[in-house]
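Section handout 9: paired folding examples.
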Amino acid sequence: MHQSEYPSILLENAVEEFAKLPGIGRKTAMRLALHVLKQRNEDVNLFGNTFIKLKNEVKFCKICNNISDKEVCNICSDSSRNHSTLCVVENIKDVMAIENTGQYKGYYHVLGGIISPMDGIGPSDLNIQNLEHRITENKIIDEIIFALPTTMEGDTTNYYIHKKLKDYRLKFSVLARGVAIGDDLEYTDELTLGRSIINRIEFS
């Protein structure tokens, strides 16, 4: 029978769980587990309960699919924003990145991914049907801004949505290519991303 390298199965289990997190190797996982072990019981309980509450109680906005504490997120419930523009993004991190620029005052639509046949992700796996529903229900929207990754998958998703919505007489635009090919929005500096939104170009 294999002898565990850990002095405690409880420690080993903790390391295994930390190592499941993205970007966390086993050495870092060990440091984190040992750090937790040194903390006061009440601090560890707070730490654990924070993630339990996050998983059990967080909501997704019924309008745009952004993360929210309520049925409708703070952005969708803000009537002072520009009702005519809708920015289509891949995920919640992209909403946060664009909001941090302070250059966009319209609304968002979070797809929850992009079309990627290699990963088994098709249009039906994304929040596209609800996007079309928003367009048909909200006659004020006149511009769709594509803010998806500048990759083959991102471009494929852009073209699919454009084809699906082209009969609605909307203006379609895409971020200016200040965002480098293949870059994720979350890793683009705020100034560059802000300029890419302001200088967006017509999608064709």
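Moving on to protein 2 of 2.
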Amino acid sequence: MRRVLAIDTSAGTSVAVVELGAAIGARPQCVGSWHSDNPMKHAENIGVAIAAALQQAGLTASKLDAVVVGRGPGPFTGLRVGIAAAVMFAEGARLPLYGVVSLDAIALAEREAGLTLEPVARLLVATDARRKEVYWATYSGIGLERGEGPGVQKFEVLLGELEPAGPLVAATQGVHAENIGRLFFEQHLAGVASLDISALYLREPDAVPTPAKKVSG
């Protein structure tokens, strides 16, 4: 397993081709990417994003070993676009498909940026869930392993519940597909890569079917 296409639409639209070097201990490198922080227009952007990332990498689907998709948590509409695109691409290219938790990829980005925590501190990763809420999870230890979450809650209420247990450090990184790919390689090399691509919506979608009208008679 050397080269993957990583997709995430839990926030904006992000696609990357991530490659693991042949040298022992080599860090996975992003060789092509397309990213937009726009939390809308996932369906319009995803095809352009995949094509641009592959073109920048100078690769075709036949040169990939797998597809990796961020499972969120994220808003219903945006998140399902990325997962559906990953499923279709993987099926069309006959590639295995893996899933990772998008918040975990943010924690990985913080770790690779050099973040270190005091023994009693925790990293709080929070992304916009709309409705004045956030999707969140906490991480601790040298490897920033996930402790609590993922969940969805109003930010002020969340802080009121978490702060009594010790100091919190807020994540500053966003969700980028290159970190989705890097996290996959870390999990793959550890033998814990997951085939679970189920979406972490964490709440009911905004759109619900209209109740059927009763027919008299």
